[in-house]
Structure formats: C-alpha cells, structure tokens
Amino acid sequence: APAETTSEPRPAQPSAATSETVETASISAPMKDDVAMPADGDEQVASAPAAAEEEIAGFEPVPVDAGPVALREAADSGDPKALFEVGSRYAEGRKVKTDMAAAAKWYERSAELGFAPAQYRIGNFFEKGTGVDRDIAKAKTWYQLAAEQGNASAMHNLAVLYAMGADGVADNDSAARWFIKAAELGVKDSQFNLGILAAKGVGVPQDLEESYKWFALVAKAGDRDAAAKRDEVANALRPEQLARARATVELWKPKPVDPEANVVEIPEGWEEPGTKTASVDMKKAVANIQKILNKNGYEAGGADGVMGEKTKAAIIAFQSDNGLDPTGEIDEKLIKVLLEKK
C-alpha cells in the first residue's frame, strides 16, 4: 500500500519585492485528491497582452527621482531590464518612497516587452493583490509566459495555482507537468510536491520509487518534513525497489537554469555613485558561498570563487527555497540565510 502523505502542496515562491508576506488564499486549501479531467489537447499558452505592441513612446517618462539619468534614459527608450529595475526601486524603497502600485506599473511594462523576471514578478503581484487588484487569471497568464521562457519560480507558482484550482478548476495534469519542469531545475518545493503526487498517483502515474526520489532529494538539503516522508515511502518499498530508488537519487543532477530568464544583472551605470559595496576579496567570499551551497545540497561546482552559471543556478535554487527573491545575485539577505546554514 502506498505511504500516507500530506495532501497539501507547498506554496508558491514569494516575490521578495515586498518585505511583507502576503498569504495566498488559493494555497491554504488542501490539494484535490481526485485527478482533474485532462484538457482537450495541450494547454493553450496565453499570449502577451496587446499592450506589448504599443510604442514605448506612448508611455509616461520615468520620474526624475526614480534613478540616475542612464537608468531613466534606458527605461524611457524601452529597455525591459531598465523598466524592471525602476519597478524594483519602487518595490524595495531604494532611493524612492516605497510604492507597490508604481512598482506594479513598471514591472508590467517590462513584462509586456517579454522580460521573464518581470513576468514572474507581476504574476506574483496579481496573485497576491500587491499594488494591483488580485486577479488569478492574470497571475496565471504572466506566470505561464515567464515559465515558458524558463523562469523556475514561475513554473512552481503556476503549478501551485493549477493544483489548487485557484480560479475554480483544478488541473492536476498541468500542475504535475509544471512541477516536474521546476523540480528538474532544482526547485525544492516542486520536488516535495512531486513526492506527494507520485505517492498518490495524482497527475502522474503512482510510483513510490519516484516519490522516494523526490522526497530524498529535498531531504538532502536538510528538510526534515521531506526526510520523514522519504522514510514513510521507504517502508512501503521492497528492498530491491529501495536500492534502485537510492541509486537514482545519487545519480540525479539538476538541469541548468537559464540565467536570462531568472537572473537580473543591473549595469553599474544604472546605480548611484557610491552604492556599490567595496570589494573585500570578493573571490574568497564567493568561494565561501559555494562551499555552503554545496554543503546544503545545492550544486555550485568547485569552490573556485568564480560566479559562473552553475553558481548562479545554485543561488537561484537556494533563494527560491528560502523565501528570497530568486535573482541569482549575492546580497545581504542571501548571506544572512547562508550563514544560518553554514
């Protein structure tokens, strides 16, 4: 008999654009035990809003106090990354007064131009009603657009909305499909949820070896709940099944995360003079971060002090699992949480 597992999926990844944690009603409800009827054919990928076709010249200019001239000029010329940075400044209260409505406006403009991190961020705003009226349909649209481009957190959040039937109709098949995509990139909450789905046979074929694999991968990062579920499933496996499942866990590697869809690197020219922290042997600091990530099950590669794509992907996965904005960048919040797990 399959192991008893919790029926409640782990929640959507938060947007760290706001320091306030806004609970999402759709996530607090239990996951449906019955499998939703599959949609006719593949799910239709939502198209970007028609506003993306508008000329950027039709937009109001960026306010003077929103940042340096170089940033404002880039945003006014339609640079989606610059528009995203303006949104982040309003969301985080950097050099301007915190204004979530203004943040949402600039994030959405960036998203309309196809910038995946902005699509994820505005999707999160619509999901939680941050700076905008709560609108699950719009949240799903933006999450899906970001997910299709490879944004790992958007994949997870989209899966949660499908699983919970946030708009009134649960779709376990679509939920499982997106959980799998996110889990393969190393998103731990998606892996945990797949452990549940595989144990129950919801959205995926019932497979206790697969369930064990996902729970074990999350447990390797120090998650006690996952370790308990892993052990429950192990008790339901035959010795040869357990040996096979353990071997699968040891051989498993995450797929590479596309930095273009997940990481926002801001040019130094868009920062105010003096805002960059002076380097205190940055290579040594990165090497220490790599060591901590590797110790906690996030494969950052060798501790060489070089911020390569593998290290960025590991940072994104760690940030996603710990309620931080998955930017792939080193900041104070990341360092604080890392030091707690040293």
Helix/strand/pairing class, anyone? mainly alpha
Total strand segments: 0
Shape: globular
Largest sheet: none
Mean pLDDT, all residues: 83
**CATH class designation of the domain at 14-169 and 272-276:** Mainly Alpha
* The CATH homology group name of the domain at 14-169 and 272-276: Tetratricopeptide repeat domain
Structure notes:
The chain has 16 helices and no strands. Helix 2 packs across helix 3 and helix 3 packs antiparallel against helix 4. Helices cover 53% and strands 0% of the residues. 46% of the residues are buried. Among the domains are: 161 residues, Tetratricopeptide repeat domain (Serine Threonine Protein Phosphatase 5, Tetratricopeptide repeat), CATH 1.25.40.10; 62 residues, Orthogonal Bundle (Muramoyl-pentapeptide Carboxypeptidase, domain 1). The two termini are 39 Å apart. By secondary structure, it is mainly α.
Summary, kept brief:
The chain is mainly alpha-helical and 342 residues long.
Topology, pairings included?
Layout: H1 25-28, H2 69-76, H3 80-92, H4 100-112, H5 116-128, H6 136-148, H7 152-164, H8 172-184, H9 188-200, H10 208-219, H11 224-235, H12 239-251, H13 259-262, H14 282-295, H15 309-321, H16 332-340
Helix pairs in contact: 2-3, 3-4, 4-5, 5-6, 6-7, 7-8, 8-9, 9-10, 10-11, 10-12
